[in-house]
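tool=predict chain=A
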Amino acid sequence: NKELQRKSMGKYKDLMVNTGLFAFTQIATKLITFFLVPLYTAYMSTADFGVTDMSSTVVSMVLPLATLSVSDGVLRFAIDDKTNRDRYISLGLVVVLFSIIVVAVLSPMLSLSFFGGLDRYRGLFIASYALCALQTFFNMLARALNKVRIIPISAIVTTALTAICAVVFIAHMGLGASGFFYSLLVGNMGGVLCFFFVGGMFRHFKLHFETKDIAILKRMLIYCIPMVPNALFWWVSSNINRFFITGMIGIGVTGLFAAAQKIPGLLTTAAGIFQQAWQLSSFQQFRKTNIAKFFSTVFRIYHAGISIVATIIAVCSSWLASFLLQKEFYQAWTLIPIMVVAFYFNVLNSYYGTVYTATLKTKSLFTTTIWGALCCAGATWMLIPCLGVAGACMGMVLSNLLVFVLRVFSSRTILRFEVQWSLVIATAVLLTIQAMVIWLQTPYGNIVAIAIAVVICVLQVFSVAKYIDVFIGRIKHHSK
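tool=predict ok
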C-alpha cells in the first residue's frame, strides 16, 4: 500500500516539478513581453500594430498546416517508442524544414487585401515563420527527451534579446513594424541556437535514412494529420474575428482589438504554464491505473486556479489598461472582460483536448473544433454590424463555449472523470455577468464586479480546501 501510495504521489510530484519549470519560463518571459505592450502602443500606430498582429495570426495558422503538426507527433512517439526515438526526431525535422520551402512558395498570397498589407514585409514574414517553426519543434523535442530544463534557458534568451532589440529598433530607431520583425527574428534565432547547441539537440539527428523510416513516418502522420484540421479550425475559431474586423471596420480597429487581447492573454499564459506540464504528465501516465481519478483531481485544482485569475483580470481591466494601453489604444479596455470569458472556456477546452491526445484518439478533436470555428465565423459576422468590435469578442465566447460542451460529452466515450458541474456552471455564469456589468459600465458596476470576484474566489478556495489541507500537512510532515 505504501508503495502504491508513493507511486501515486510521484505522478503529482512530477506534474508539480514540471509546472514549476514552465512557470519559471512563462513568468520570466511573459512578464517582459507583457511590459513591452506599452512600448509597442506608444511608438507604433494602430495600423502598424495591426500588421504585426496579423503576421503572428497568419504564422499560427500556417504552422500546423505546413508542418502537419509533426512536432506533436515527435513528442508523443519519442516518449512511447524510445528504440526509434532518433528516427522520429530526424524525420520530424525534415518535415519542418520542407514546410519552410512550402511557405516561401506560397508567400505571394500575402498580397490579398484581407492580410492588411502584410505583403510589404514578405521576406521578414518568411524568416519569422522559419524560426518560429524550428523553435516550436525544439521545444517539443526538449520535452520528449525529458530535457525540460533547457526550455526556460532558451525562453529567457529569446525574450531578453527580443526586448533589447525592440527598444533599439522601435523606440530609438523608429522602425515601426519592421523593427518589430527584426527584434523577433534576433530573439527567436537566439532561442533556436540555445536549443541546438546548449541543449545538445544536434546529437539526435541522423543524416542517413533507412527503409523502416517509411513505416515510422506513416505511423507518426496517422497520429498528426487529424490534428492539422483541428489546429486549422481551432485557429479559425480563435482568429477569424481579426479578418472580419479588418474587412468590416478596418486594420486600425484590428490593432485596438489585438492590443486589448494582450491583457486577458494573461489567463492563457497562466493556463499555459500548467498545460505544458499537464500534457507531458498525461502522456506518461495514460496507460496506468487510476487515470480517471488523476484527471479529476487535476481538473478541480486547475479550474479553481484559472477561475480566480480570470475574475481578478476582469475586475482589474481598467487599471491594467491605464498603463499598458497607451494613447488611443486605451479605449479598448471595456472589451477585456468579455475576452476573459472567452479565454476561460478556451483553457477548459485545452484541458479536455488532452483526453484525445493522451489516448491517441486525435480524430475526435476534429469534429468539435469544426463546430466551434463555424460558430465563431457565423456569430462574428452577425454581431459586428450591431455591436461593433464587441461582437467579435462575443463570437469568441459563443464558439469556445460550444467546443467545451461538445468535448465534455464526446470525451466521455474515451475517458469519464468526475467534475463538479454545479461549481463550473456557477463560475461561468458569474464571470459572464461580471463581464456584461463592466462592458456596459452600469451604475455601481465596479462594486458589483468586485463582489462577484470575491464570490468566485471564495467558491474556488472551498472547492480545493481538502487538497490545500493535504498539501499543508505534507509540508509540516517533511519539516519535522
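Residues 1-9 have pLDDT under 50 and may be disordered. The CA atoms of residues 240 and 377 lie 7 Å apart.
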